[in-house]
Every structure is written in C-alpha cells, then in structure tokens.
C-alpha cells in the first residue's frame, strides 16, 4: 500500500544550469498551430502597420535628394531660426494648454463628483461634446465669435454700443497663439476631465475621515489629501492634454495665422514645398516629446495601480450650499461656453452672409460652388468610418485576446503588446507621413543581402483602404486598452478549462469571450467611428481626389475662404456623431444590462 | 495496485526562481491524493504541469498509464479540472455549462441530454439547471464546475483548492460530498489544498510539499503519526520538539500521558499553564529534570482528558509525571 518514501536529500539537488532551465516543448496539434499562427499574424500585422512605415520615415529623414546624409537634416533644422521658432511655439502653446485644461477640468470634475449640484448628467454630456467635433470646428467657432467680424469682437455687431452707449467690443487677437490655445483647451478638456473624474472618484474617503479626526482645515485637507491622492491623475491628464495639443493639426491650421507650429510646418514642408526629407525630420522631432510623455505616463500608471484597495470607501458628499452654488455657476459658465461654440458654428452654417445678411438659408449645406466637392466627402467619411469601426474592432479585439489570454509564445505576445501601445505616442501626422513613404514605394531593398522585392502593398496607395488602415493604427492603443480591460475582467481559467475539455480556443472565444465582452466591443466600434469621422491629421496626407473625407474638405474650404460651408460640414459631422452615439446608447441598453447581470457574483 | 499517473523528477523554473525541484510520486488508480503545503510551495504549478498548462523543465517526466505524456497538450491528456474560481461560463446556464464539452464531441442530442441530467442528479442540482452562475450560491457553483469536469468521463480529476472560496459550514459539507462522489465514480483525483484538516479527512494519500520540494508522502495516519521532518511534524497538527543526547525528537501532545508514578521514559514536571479545550485540557509543563530532554519551546504541551484532570486534581503548579512513550517519539534523520 505505502510507497517507499521519496524524500530527497538536500545534497542531491543539482545546480541549475542553462541547459537545466530548458523547458519541454509540447507537441502541437492543429488547433494549437492555428492559435500560434494567429499570434504570429498579429505581430506581422503590427510590424507592417507600424514598424516598417516608421523605419521608412526615419530613412527619409536621414537623406536628402535620395542621398544618405546622416543627421544633416536635423542639424539644418536646428540652424534654421524660423523652424526652431515653431518648435518653441509648439512647446509653449502645449504647455499653456495643458495647464489651463487640467485646471478647468479639475474643478469641473470636482463639481461633478464632490458636490451636490443639480444637472450633473447634463454637465457631463456637455463636457464630452467637443469629442464629437473635428478640431477645425473649434477654430471656426472662434472665428465667428472672436474673429475680425466675430460676435464679440464687434460687440454684437455694434448692438451693445447702441443699447448701452458703451463700446463693449473686445478684440482678443484671435489669429495666433491665443486662438490655438483656446481651441486646444476645448479639444483637450474632455480627455482631461475624464481622467480626473476617475482619479477623484477612486479617492479613499477614509483618508478624509482620518484628516477630520485630526482637525485638519479645508485648505489643509485639499493639499494633504485631495492633491496627493489624485496627483497621478493630474499628471496623466496634463500629459494627455500636452501631447494632444502638441501634435494637433486642425486648430493651428484654421486659427494659427502666421504663428507656426510643428504640425503645420510638416504640412507646409510636405504639401507646400515638397520637401519630404525636412517634413520627416520635423515629424520625428514631433514624436520625441510625445514619446517622453508616453513613457513617463506609463511609469506613473504602474505606480498608481496599487493605491486603491478593495477596502477603500467611496466619498460621501457633505451638505454645503455656498459651495454648490459656486460650482454650479462654474459648470454653467463652461457649458454655456461649449454650447455657444456650437451655436456660433450652427448660426454660421445657416445664415446667408455673415455678418451682413442674417437671413436663414440651407444654401451652405449643399456645398455647391465651393472647394469641397459637394456632399461626396461626407459620404466618403461615413463609408471610411463604418469600415474602420467594423474592421478595427475585429482586428483590435482579436489582437488583444491573443495577447491577453494565450499561453503560447510569451515573448512574441510581449512584443506585440508593446507595439500595440506604441501608437499612443504616434501623432496622426507622423502616421500619415510614414504611410506615404511606405505604401508609395515601388520596391524594397532588403538590407545586407541586396535583394529587391516589389512592394506588395503599393496597390493600396490612394485607396480608401489605406485610410482605413491608418485610422485603425492611429486609434489602436486606446481600443486595445478598452479590450484588454474587459478581457482582464474575465476569469483567466476559461481557456484552460476549455482546453481540458478538448474544445478549440475559437469556440470558447465565440461562445463566451465575445458575448461577455460585448459592451466593450461596441464601445470600441463607436469610438472608432466617431474618431474616424473627425480625424484630420493622419488622413490629410493620404487622400486623393476620389477619397476625400469630410474633415479634409473642411480644411480645403477654410483654405479657400469658404468658411460658412466649412462650418456647415462641421455641424453635419457633429450631428452625425451625436445621432450615432444616441442610437448606440438606446440600442445597447439591453445588451449592457444582460452582461452586467452575468458579471455580478 | 495499478499506477495511473507517474510523476518523475519534475522540475520547474521561472527564470532563476525554482518553483519545483525533482518531484517524484505515483498516483494509483481510484486513489484520492492531496497535494498539501504552505502558500507558494508550488502546488498549483505542479497541478498545472500535470494538466499540461505549464511546461516543466527538460528531464521531467509524466506518465499516464505507462505512456509518456510529458509533451502532450492538455487536450490530449483526458482529465477534468476544477479551479479555485470554478471558471463557470457566466453567460451559459448550469445545464449549458455541463453540456459544453459534450456538445463538442458531436454526440447525439439525446445522449448529451442524458449525460447532463445524470451529472446533475449526481450532484443533486437538477432543480437549478436553468440558472446562470451568478444566480447560484458558491457551493452550487462549485458542484456545477465539478459536474462539468466529470461529464466527459475523464480518466482523472484535478482540483485546485476547490473549497477555499466557500464558508466553513459549506466547506465541511462539500468535503464529504466530493469524497463520496469520488468513491462512487472511482475516479482518480488529485486535489491541491493548504488546509491540513481537509487533506487528513479526504485523502487516501497525502503529498506534503514545502519550498518547491516534496517533504513526505503517505497515508494521513502515517504522516500524522510519523512525520519525517520537523516541517511535516509542525505543519500537521501540534508537536513538541525535543533534543535528547544530540538527536532531535518530536512527540504530539496527545501522545504524552500523565501517570501516577515514575515509569520508564517518564519525566517529572511542574504544570505552568492550562487551557480548557472542551473534551481535554492542554497542559504546559516545565520539566524539572532538565538533563534528560531539552524542550525547544521551554514548555511541553500535553493533552489530557478533562475527566483525568479532575480525577487527578491537576492544577497550576501541580507536580506531575509525564510519560513519553518510545513508540510515539519520532527521531529525525537530518536536522
Ligand atoms: N508564471 C509564473 N512566473 C513566475 N513565478 C511564478 C509563476 N507562477 C508561479 N510562480 C511562483 O512559483 C511559486 C509557486 O507558485 P504556486 O502557484 O504553485 O504556489 P501554490 O503552492 O499553489 O501556492 P498557493 O497555496 O498560494 O496557491 C510561487 O512563489 C510563485 O510566485
Ligand atoms: Mg495555488
């Protein structure tokens, strides 16, 4: 009955050597082959979509007139005062944007989480409104409010002066840094707000109770409890706002005037002067701060993850009428600001000739006789956004699934994860530029072996497909994080259990993983759709006459001075996005409810 | 007895960290084996290696009915598994969860239905078959997971701390139920646990692990009565560790007798503390003759039936004779 005892003597234990560390390799069945092939495919896709184009971009930056010149372009860049000036401009505009945006968003988020003000959900929706619009729209709105013939600049067209006898006209010198900063603050506000709201919501209330028992004053509590506990959120929000405005193209294009920033420089170098090498050089310079901020943000987030324990207690809002009234006014002012922007654009789109003839017209909505090719760009946008949403969601979710849930090829998956997160640091302009070089190249010279291969992807150049691919890569990281977060919530033993029952992974993927992650999957789809409708930076380099998008036509129209139709197009985009979002919310209510019921334990 | 699984020389490293070191043991057919050890000793890793979910180092070997399965993927090993989290598919009903593996086998619908119903009646949960996991109690979820693992009639069953997520009462009940089920189905089972009581009550054979190694293996009685190492003695139950003429000895409190007069192997001691434990008292004795035995913790723990304490009128500071019977004194080889 009893086995002989097999207690090992300590002296018998072999010293681990490298050979000894080798693992036994499992035999691979058909299903495992498929699984591994998919993992490899994800990596190959990411290499083609991200690494190779970036390498190509780097090569172009290192050459001049087809000759390899090393860092000469970079040296030339830093020796050209006008170019260095735009770097300085970009940095200062983004820093100021980051600070203003974070401060405004902080108090707004604070109001919505820590006070008892009314209309909270209304304020929340308003805060997200700018996300539905292309950044050019913020610029256009500002032109109608603060431009030469703007409502405010002219003191409501002299109306105030007539009524009050005072000259209330204010000219803020819109075209230039001021216009850019205001537009970027509007653009980055929702993102900063979202990050800060989450950060404030997870602060442990027990800390406040502890501070109360120690008799800390309100101000002291603010600086010793509130600020430290959300400092990572503050830094993160600042980085996001900074990067977004550092790399934005739309707003400076519309209200920048003669104030140059890096993003508009790239465009001018490439499209205006056909100086591709200098364009790529600026592109690479554009990546650097974004990359630094990206790495810093990653490091910070790693630290933060442990600060909220399951024992933490949610914040309990105390009664304070004065505070509530102050915050209500604050939120109201911001909301009115956001709404008046949309109102201005709406008015601009619907009146005959601003500011001379204010009679209503739908003429601008026909886009006849303007630089925009009628409504075709709008339909192109819808088409591209739908394809991006469907294809992108499928590709990104499957990619995230393989990275997160597989037990094979750990190293490959880690590399894929890194590449999947990388686009977070890649400005759209850089992606677009890199894509021109990569997809436009007839053939590749393979290094070291001297073989030339025909570029199999060249046929994509100038098609809708290249725009779709650029969009998917551009928005890859955010959606990967959404997918990964949802997948992490699922029990990590679903896959081993299925394997023990000899059920292929794709069956469990289809019958458990996907249904359980449906809300996240739909969220990804809507994100991809909305952002593809509004994006300009990546696609500005990739469109042709046949594949022009709505956002591009807005730029074309403002360039040509057709501001009213540009406003009209912006409004149509915003409305489309709002309608899509509302329909989505209504249609998925049931799905979300059901999934929630499954998820509670 | 026929061997079903042979675990030979299994080693596993994670980078420089050694999670398992030369683990060797056999599992006989129809046997219930418990892997017991403190947290982090490598139990789960070993179970996952047996399942094929983790690749062991070169040189390790696992045989199933004499056939080498070390490099077989999990799907080819024919086992059922229940994890600590149960991993029930939340979007499928209890019935669908159990039918999940059967459906893939392309069995006729009627047979699937029969087998699911059989499995449900085996665990007495026919009435909740249409509920989703979130609508089941922890114990019910646990049993559904068990039924799902058994529905495919696997050749062995792996359980990773299947009871640890349940509260004490349910745990006791399920302990018996799982063991009864295992005996009815005669299915070879390996269960991971860090609860010694669970292992002692359920297992035919206990494999005690510590720090990536196998410390001792044997029936619950053997392990309890004759712990091979101080670790095992200390891990299972309470033990007194003594030094005697340069050797190390161990004896359990209930194996020490209080006697009326001096006998062979008895020591004179004074009662320094008493704890009432219901049916017995635990006495803490200080030996008066310090030369014979040296007690590691100064005081010797002795369990004495409550009736005897009353009869002998033992109280604090009483002088008593404690007998340490030779057959219960365990000597360690390498300490
Ligand atoms: N994938 C891994 N990478 C690195 N180390 C690991 C990995 N999996 C397990 N380990 C380490 O191996 C050791 C044994 O882990 P294992 O999960 O087998 O412990 P256990 O005995 O099951 O403990 P518990 O009772 O807490 O479940 C632990 O120190 C653990 O940190
Ligand atoms: Mg474990």
Number of helices of chain A: 23
CATH-derived topology of the largest domain in chain B: Rossmann fold
Main pleated-sheet profile of chain A: 2 strands, antiparallel
End-to-end Cα distance of chain B, whole Å, is 34 Å
How many beta-strand elements of chain A?
6
Order of helices and strands of chain A: HEEHHHHHHHHHHHHEEHHHEEHHHHHHH
Mean residue pLDDT of chain A: 88
Nearest-angstrom radius of gyration of chain B?
Answer: 24 Å
What is the CATH first-level class name of the largest domain in chain B? Alpha Beta
**Largest sheet of chain B at a glance?**
6 strands, mixed
Task: Point out poorly predicted stretches of chain B.
Answer: none
Q: Span between N and C termini of chain A?
A: 44 Å
Reported CATH architecture of the domain at 80-304 and 320-356 in chain A: Orthogonal Bundle
Describe what this molecule looks like in 3D:
Chain A is mainly α and 601 residues long. Chain A has a domain at 80-304 and 320-356: MetI-like fold (Orthogonal Bundle). Chain A has 23 helices and 6 strands. In chain A, the strands form 3 sheets. Chain A has a two-stranded antiparallel sheet with strand order 1-2. In chain A, helix 1 (30-61) packs across helix 16 (428-440). Chain A is globular and about 90 Å long. Chain B has 335 residues and is of the alpha+beta class. Chain B has 2 domains: 3-230, 3-Layer(aba) Sandwich (Rossmann fold), CATH 3.40.50.300; 238-332, Beta Barrel (OB fold (Dihydrolipoamide Acetyltransferase, E2P)), CATH 2.40.50. Chain B contains 9 helices and 19 strands. Chain B has helices at residues 43-51, 94-104, 109-122, 138-151, 168-185, 196-202, 220-225, 230-235, 306-312; strands spanning 3-14, 17-28, 32-36, 61-64, 67-68, 79-82, 156-160, 188-193, 205-210, 213-218, 240-244, 247-251, 257-259, 266-276, 280-287, 294-295, 300-305, 319-323, 330-331. Chain B has a 6-stranded mixed β-sheet with strand order 6-7-8-3-9-10, sandwiched between helices. In chain B, helix 2 (94-104) packs across helix 3 (109-122). Chains A and B meet through helix 19, helix 20 and helix 23 of A and strand 2, strand 6, helix 2 and strand 10 of B.
């Amino acid at each position: 009955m009893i086995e002989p005892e097999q207690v090992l003597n300590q002296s018998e234990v072999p010293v681990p050597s490298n050979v000894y560390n080798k693992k036994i390799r499992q035999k691979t069945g058909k299903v495992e082959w498929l699984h591994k092939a998919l993992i490899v495919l994800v990596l190959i896709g990411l290499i083609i979509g991200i690494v190779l184009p970036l390498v190509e971009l780097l090569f172009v930056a290192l050459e001049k007139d087809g000759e390899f010149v090393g860092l000469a372009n970079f040296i030339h860049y830093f020796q050209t005062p006008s170019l260095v000036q735009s770097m300085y401009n970009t940095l200062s505009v983004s820093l100021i944007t980051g600070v203003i945006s974070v401060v405004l968003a902080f108090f707004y988020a604070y109001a919505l989480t820590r006070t008892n003000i009314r209309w909270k959900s209304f304020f929340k929706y308003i805060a997200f409104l700018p996300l539905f619009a292309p950044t050019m729209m913020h610029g256009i709105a500002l032109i109608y409010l603060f431009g030469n013939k703007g409502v405010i600049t002219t003191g409501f067209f002299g109306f105030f002066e007539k009524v009050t006898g005072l000259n209330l006209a204010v000219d803020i010198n819109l075209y230039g840094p001021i216009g850019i900063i205001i537009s970027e603050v509007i653009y980055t506000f929702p993102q900063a707000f979202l990050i800060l709201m989450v950060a404030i919501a997870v602060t442990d209330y027990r800390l406040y109770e502890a501070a109360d028992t120690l008799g800390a004053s309100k101000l002291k509590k603010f600086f010793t409890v509130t600020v430290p506990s959300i400092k990572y959120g503050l830094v993160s929000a600042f980085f996001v706002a900074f990067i977004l405005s550092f790399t934005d193209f739309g707003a400076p294009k519309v209200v920048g005037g003669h104030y140059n920033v890096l993003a508009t420089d790239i465009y001018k170098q490439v499209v205006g002067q056909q100086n591709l090498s200098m364009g790529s050089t600026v592109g690479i310079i554009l990546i650097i701060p974004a990359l630094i901020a990206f790495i810093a943000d990653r490091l910070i987030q790693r630290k933060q993850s442990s600060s909220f324990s399951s024992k933490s207690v949610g914040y309990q809002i105390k009664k304070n009428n004065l505070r509530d009234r102050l915050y209500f006014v604050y939120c109201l002012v911001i909301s009115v600001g956001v709404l008046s922007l949309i109102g201005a654009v709406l008015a601009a789109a619907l009146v005959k000739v601003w500011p001379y003839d204010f009679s209503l017209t739908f003429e601008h909505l026909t886009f006849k006789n303007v630089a925009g090719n009628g409504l075709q760009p709008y339909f192109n946008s819808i088409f591209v956004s739908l394809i991006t949403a469907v294809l992108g969601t499928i590709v990104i979710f499957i990619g995230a699934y393989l990275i997160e849930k597989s037990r094979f090829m750990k190293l490959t998956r880690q590399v894929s994860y890194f590449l999947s997160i990388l686009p977070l640091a890649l400005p759209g302009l850089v992606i677009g530029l890199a894509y021109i070089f990569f997809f436009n190249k007839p053939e590749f010279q393979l290094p070291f072996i001297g073989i030339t291969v025909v570029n199999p992807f060249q046929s994509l150049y100038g098609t809708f497909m290249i725009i779709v691919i650029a969009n998917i890569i551009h928005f890859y990281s955010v959606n990967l994080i959404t997918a990964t977060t949802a997948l992490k919530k699922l029990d990590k033993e679903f896959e081993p259990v299925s394997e023990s029952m000899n059920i292929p992974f794709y069956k469990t993927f289809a019958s458990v993983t996907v249904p359980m992650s449906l809300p996240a999957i739909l969220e990804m789809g809507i994100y991809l759709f909305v952002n593809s409708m509004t994006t300009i930076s990546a696609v500005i380099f990739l469109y042709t006459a046949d594949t022009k998008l709505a956002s591009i036509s807005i730029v074309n129209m403002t360039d040509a001075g057709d501001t009213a139709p540009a406003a009209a197009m912006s409004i149509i985009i915003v409305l489309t996005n709002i309608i899509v979002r509302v329909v989505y919310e209504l249609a998925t209510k049931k799905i979300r409810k059901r999934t929630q019921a499954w998820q509670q334990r | 007895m026929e061997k079903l699984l042979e675990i030979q020389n299994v080693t596993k490293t994670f980078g420089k960290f050694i999670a398992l070191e030369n683990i060797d043991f056999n599992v006989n057919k129809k046997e219930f084996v418990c892997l017991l050890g403190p947290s982090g000793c490598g139990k789960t890793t070993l179970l996952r290696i047996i399942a094929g979910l983790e690749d062991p180092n070169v040189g390790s070997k696992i045989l199933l009915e004499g056939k080498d399965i070390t490099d077989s993927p999990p799907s080819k090993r024919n086992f059922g598994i229940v994890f600590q989290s149960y991993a029930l598919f939340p979007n499928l009903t209890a019935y669908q969860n159990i039918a999940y593996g059967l459906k893939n086998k392309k069995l006729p619908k009627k047979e699937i239905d029969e087998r699911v119903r059989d499995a449900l009646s085996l665990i007495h949960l026919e009435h909740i078959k249409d509920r989703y996991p979130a609508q089941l109690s922890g114990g019910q979820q646990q049993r559904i997971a068990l039924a799902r693992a058994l529905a495919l009639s696997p050749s062995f069953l792996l359980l990773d701390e299947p009871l640890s997520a349940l509260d004490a009462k349910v745990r006791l009940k399920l302990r018996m139920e799982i063991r009864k089920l295992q005996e009815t189905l005669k299915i070879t089972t390996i269960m991971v646990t860090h609860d010694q009581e669970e292992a002692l009550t359920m297992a035919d054979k206990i494999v005690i692990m510590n720090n990536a190694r196998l410390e001792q293996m044997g029936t619950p009685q053997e392990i309890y009565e004759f712990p091979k190492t101080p670790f095992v003695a200390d891990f299972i139950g309470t033990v007194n560790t003594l030094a005697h003429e340069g050797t190390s000895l161990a004896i359990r409190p209930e194996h020490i007798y209080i006697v009326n007069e001096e006998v062979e192997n008895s020591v004179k001691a004074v009662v320094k503390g008493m704890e009432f434990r219901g049916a017995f008292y635990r006495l803490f004795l200080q030996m008066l003759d310090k030369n014979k035995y040296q007690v590691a913790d100064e005081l010797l723990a002795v369990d004495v039936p409550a009736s005897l304490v009353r009869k002998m009128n033992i109280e604090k500071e009483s002088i008593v004779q404690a007998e340490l019977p030779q057959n219960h004194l365990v000597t360690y080889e390498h300490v």
